[in-house]
Amino acid sequence: MCGNVRTVLRFLEKINAKVVKRFWSNSEWNSLQIDVHSLQMKKLGSYPLLLATLLSLAPLWRSMTASAVTSAAPAIAIIRSLLFFTGVVGSVDALSAASAVSIPKQTFNAKVGVKADLPVVIQFDASYTISIITWAPVSPGVVPPGLSLVTGYISFDPVILSATIKGTPTVAGTYALTITAKENANAKADRTVTGTITVIVAPADAPPKITTPPTDQAVTEGGSATFSVVATGSAPLQYQWYFNTNHSIPNATNATLALNSIPLTAAGTYSVLVTNKFGGLLSPAAHLTVTPNVVVPPFSLGSPLVVGNELHFALPVVAGASYVVQYLPTLKGAVWQSLTNLPTPGVTGSVDVHVPMTGLQGWFRVTSTP
Predict the structure, then answer these.
(1) What is the pLDDT of residues 156-166, one digit of tens each?
(2) CATH number for domain 209-291, candidates 1.10.10.10, 3.90.960.10, 2.60.40.10, 3.40.30.10
(3) Contact between 122 and 131 (Cβ < 8 Å)
(4) CA 92, CA 96: separation in Å to the nearest integer?
(5) DSSP code per residue over 37-97
(6) Tens digit of each residue's pLDDT (9 = 90 or more) over 276-323
(7) pLDDT tens digit string along 111-122?
(8) H/E element holding 312?
(9) 236 preceded by cis ω (within 30°)?
(10) Of 330, 349, 364, 367, whose CB count within 10 A is highest?
């Protein structure tokens, strides 16, 4: 850097004072003064004395006349460029003492179909240079489809870049990525920093869709039954169960409906309305069948009557119960046979039973369920 400053001084000494006196106006002097003072002392490292030397020329420059010549404009540009270049070189020389850049862990939220503009936080010291910022998926993942990492300049002296995640995501999911900031393309490990970020892409806004509707159930009176539904759509989803289409069930606001100690009057249809802020959908109705819980008391058959080749007797029955009447035509090597024409009682009462017999003898038995 010291050599660059000497070059500037030698150039100033060689300029004909009369020419400078002709083209330098007061306003141009003020512009040059700003350029000179913009060279930050901390970026000149161990050479602040040289900058002070440049600034000490101010009294001489201020004495120059205000008459400007357009042909001298290139000389002005050259002087200013040299002074600016001196500051940039000083900034680069000072990088050896720069503070480390850091990329903290960050989590970003996006949604499918919604444009994203997510700035990535990269902490750096003002004396550091960042000219390359890239990202890559943490293996075996992928970069979020539809999103990209866009960089832009924060400053040119030193060169500092910003990084922003932009685009419109197309696939929902959670993506782990590595951000890398480098001083330049050939930067070594001590001039390269990395950090991990997470991008969570939520599904697109959507009304409810029922993928698994409730199914039919059959229980015995006093038993239990469970109906359930599986639905998709933008969260949160709300549920309301209905009995026989239009009777809402109190406190039945979950994806699962549990019924216990079911009475006969609970038989009917059950459906659920699923809603969110984008719409609602009523499920197909599921049927609940309730079978009476029948209790058959002990019963007596009384004395059967012999009518021809049959035994006739009255069987006391309970509505809803099932009865089986079996008989033996003989005790010798016989197998119990069941009557197939026995009626199923619709009401509590009695049923006439006719059991065939062989000769003057016949044996029979009666069982009931439940």
Answers:
(1) 877 888 999 99
(2) 2.60.40.10
(3) no
(4) 8
(5) HTS-GGGGTT-HHHHHHHHTTHHHHHTS-S---GGGHHHHHHHHHHHHHHHHHHHHHGGGG
(6) 999 999 999 999 999 888 777 777 776 778 888 787 888 888 877 778
(7) 999 999 999 998
(8) strand 310-317
(9) yes
(10) 364
Q: Are both 106-202 and 209-291 of the same fold?
A: yes
For residue 30, give both structure tokens: 């003020």
- The CATH topology of domain 106-202 is Immunoglobulin-like (2.60.40)
* 250 to 240, 241, 247, 253: CA distances (angstroms): 9, 8, 9, 8
- Give the contacts of 20 (CB within 8 A, at least 6 positions apart): 64, 75
The residue assigned the tokens 């850091």 is: 102
pLDDT at 345: 63
Question: 323: part of which helix (H) or strand (E)?
Answer: strand 322-328
Look up residue 308 and give its DSSP letter.
T
Q: What 8-state DSSP symbol labels residue 355?
A: E
CA pair distance 18, 105, nearest whole angstrom: 61
As to burial, measured by CB atoms within 10 angstroms (0-12 exposed, 13-18 middle, 19+ buried), residue 368 is middle
Length of the chain: 370
Choose among 310, 287, 324: nearest CA to 359: 310
Per domain, the residue ranges of the chain are 2-96, 106-202, 209-291, 305-369
